[in-house]
Amino acid sequence: MNTRSALLGMETSFWFIPMDKVVAFRQFLETRSIVVTNGCFDLFHFGHLTLLREAKKLGDFLWVGINGDQSVKELKGAQRPYFSEWERATIVGSFKYVDAVTIFPEARATTFLSLVRPVIYVKGADYSSQTIHQEEKEVLDRCQALIKFVPLYPGRSTSGIVERIRKGVPSAD
């Protein structure tokens, strides 16, 4: 049994929506206030949990886009991802805040965002209106999504955690 089939056989409380089903599922949710966030979620940590919790407070339905394995390599380097896209999607989807998860293949969430058409888009405060990828921002502007930035939990980033592990440094306070 491979990882994907093992994970798909797990009991879950979220919807997994493949990219080719996003439009139909979005139509099903037409009356809902859809909040979207996205990312690699490669080594899940408290900062990710905080982002999901705060995003869920902003609407009826939290839909999370997960970068596929190849796009994580493009964005983060050849040593990543640490966990497969299916593992990352299942971990993220297992939190009560998350209603749906979609794995998208591109490095940027542009296509995913254009199909979902969120009412609210949430990113961590390490981003700003100026640093969100321009194509993603254009899509969000076209669908009139409100962009919100959630404060970061200090000292928590996947890259920072990995660096501390490599150096043998204890966790941040």
Relevant terms:
six-stranded parallel β-sheet, alpha/beta, 8 helices, 39% helix, 173 residues
Would you give an account of this structure?
This protein is an alpha/beta fold and 173 residues long. The chain has eight helices and six strands; from the N terminus they run αβαβαβααβαβαβα. Strands 1-4-3-2-5-6 form a six-stranded parallel beta sheet, with helices on both faces. α3 (46-56) links the parallel β2 and β3. It starts with a helix and ends in a 6-residue tail after the last helix.
Tell me the layout of helices and strands.
Elements: H1 3-8, E1 15-16, H2 22-28, E2 34-39, H3 46-56, E3 61-67, H4 69-76, H5 85-93, E4 100-104, H6 110-116, E5 120-124, H7 134-142, E6 146-150, H8 158-167
Parallel strand pairs: 1-4, 2-3, 2-5, 3-4, 5-6
